[in-house]
Amino acid sequence: MAISQEDIKRIVENSRLRADHEFEHPPVCLAIEGNYGNETFATLGNFSTLLALPKVGKTTATGIIVSSLLKGKQISNFIPSLPDEKKNILWIDTEQGEPECVKIIRTIAKQVNGDPKADPENLIYYPLRRYNRADRIQITEHLIKNTPGLGFVVIDGIRDFVSSINDEREATAIADYLLKWTQEHNIHIFTILHQNKGDDNARGHLGSELMNKAETVATLSREDYNGKRSTIFKPKFTRHKDFQEFSFTVNEDGQILNTEIKSTYEPKSPQPNHLTPDEITTILKQTFGNNESYTYAPLQNKLHTICEKIYDHFGMTKCVKLITYLKDKNYIIQKDGSKEYIFNRYPL
Fold first, then answer.
1. pLDDT of 149-178, one tens digit each?
2. Is 186 exposed, middle or buried (0-12, 13-18, 19+ CB in 10 A)?
3. Mean pLDDT, residues 93-113 taken together
4. Three-class DSSP category at 333
5. How many Cα atoms occupy the beta-carbon half-sphere of 339 within 13 Å?
6. Nearest to 41 by CA among 31, 51, 50
């Protein structure tokens, strides 16, 4: 239903910002420890997304984060700082059955209380697999609105809030819900989504929307180092300074131990297929700002000049990959009968 002209007038009057507007930075509720200090991962009023292939430990990693928040103490590299008045954590699970969910709660309980059957006081856990997507959304909204002292929400299976990950309208609607819930209730929502098997991007239009709107996007993978299987937690996109990737393992006693990895930390050196649509548009507007056209080599040189100003260590080889990616995604096209490339402002 369309809003009235009176509502529009009120929104316009209350929404305009000016240079002298006084504001407070949103409180940090989760940070990541690194060799060069702590970096922000999550703030109240925003949402984040964890990407991973199936069966690599998404739920385990999320349980460690939640345990840290519940204890108010650092576990692995996760540093919690939920405000005293917002200590409650809501976990929505859409994928697993009740026996698996109880195992998750008991694992967290053991971390927090030392007893797997001592229910964590501030954890509120709901398995919603049995309900349809519309009901899940309504139930989640009800819980967010009616849980006092709520500070952090986990949605383990955000894909199950849409009928198809490639439905643009549904993807936009879910992103809008997340933005609305986080802002209205001053909470942080941590979402979990599967990656594509062929690359490390999120799946479908839903994944694209979440990556574009999230405060932080992290990826999870598993590797063997020195005979130990480690879980690798690293940044993909963030509005803050990139945190340093790290790894951990969980031993037979449930202890969480950090493991050593050969660091590949590059704060501002994304791969071409990791660039967001907004980043690509910024690069291309600077490249083709006056409707220029380029043959291949001049285009490579121009992109290199621009990307080196924006990112560290964006070399010529990466520019070759970038051109290939831009061509594949139809961001740049060749003029009819010409070898020159132009900016396609309406890519498919």
1. 999 999 999 999 999 988 999 999 999 999
2. middle
3. 93
4. strand
5. 5
6. 31
